[in-house]
Amino acid sequence: MRLLATSDLHLNHAANWAALSRMPAQPDDWLIVAGDVAEKIRHFRQAMDLLTSRFARVIWTPGNHDLWTLPTDHESKRGLAKYFQLVEICREFGVLTPEDPYIQWPASHSPLFIAPTFTLYDYSFRPDHVLAGEALSWAEASGVVATDEILLYPDPYPSREAWCHTRCQTTEERLIETAARGSIILVNHYPLRYDLVNLRSIPRFSLWCGTKLTEDWHLRFPLTAVIYGHLHIRGTQHRDGVRFEEVSLGYPQNWQPARGIQPYLRQILPQV
Questions:
Q1: In angstroms, rounded to a whole number, what is the distance separating the alpha carbons of residues 13 and 17?
Q2: Half-sphere exposure of 58 toward its Cβ, with a 13 Å CA cutoff?
C-alpha cells in the first residue's frame, strides 16, 4: 500500500489526457492530486471517474485552473460556486476534498492524517520593497499578468485576497484541531513558502503562487510532509526538517509524454 502524489495534470492538453488514460490501475494505492486537473467541468468529471477506477482512494485539492470559468464552458459556475461545483463532482466519485474530514493514513503506526487544504493566494509573495498596492503593476512591468486575473472570479468575496484570508483562517482552525490528534501530511496546490518559488524565467509570477500567511505552518503544526504543485518544477526540498514535495506533471513541454505518467507519480509513503 503506497501513498502517491501528482498535480497539474492539465487535461486540456491531448497528450496529458492520452497518457492518463493509459496509466495502469494501482488498486492498493492512494493518490493525492494537488490541483489543476482540468479547466472544463466535463473534463474534470471524466478525470475523477478514471482516477477512482484506478486507485483505492483519491484525494484532491483545487488549483487555479480548476477554478477558472471559461466563457466556452456553459456548465461552469464561477468563484466560490465553481469550487463547490467541483467538490460535488468529487463526492459523486468518493474523492476526498478540503471540505471533508481529514482522513487517517491506515498504514502508519501512529496517527497520521492527510489534510487537503485550499488557501489560494493574496499577492504577498513579493519582495519587501514592493508595496501591496503596487504589486500587480510591478509584475506587469516585467510582462507578467496571470490569466487568473481574467478567468478566476472571487465571487462572492470582494477580492481573491479576501477569499484567501478566509480560507487560511478556517484551515488553521482545522489544523490546530488535527494537530492535537496526530501528525499531518499537508496537501495544497500552492507552495506554503515564498522561498520555494524559484521561477527564474518569470520571477514576478510569484504573486500568484501563494500567501505569506502559510510561511510558518510547517513550524506551527506537526507536518511530516507538504505536497504541492503549481510551479511545474518537480523536486524535493527541506525546510526545518520538513519535507516539501513539488509533484506537478505540467504541460507537455514540462515532461516526456512518451514515458507515460507512471514515472512521474511521487511516492510519499512509505518514504523511499
A1: 7
A2: 27
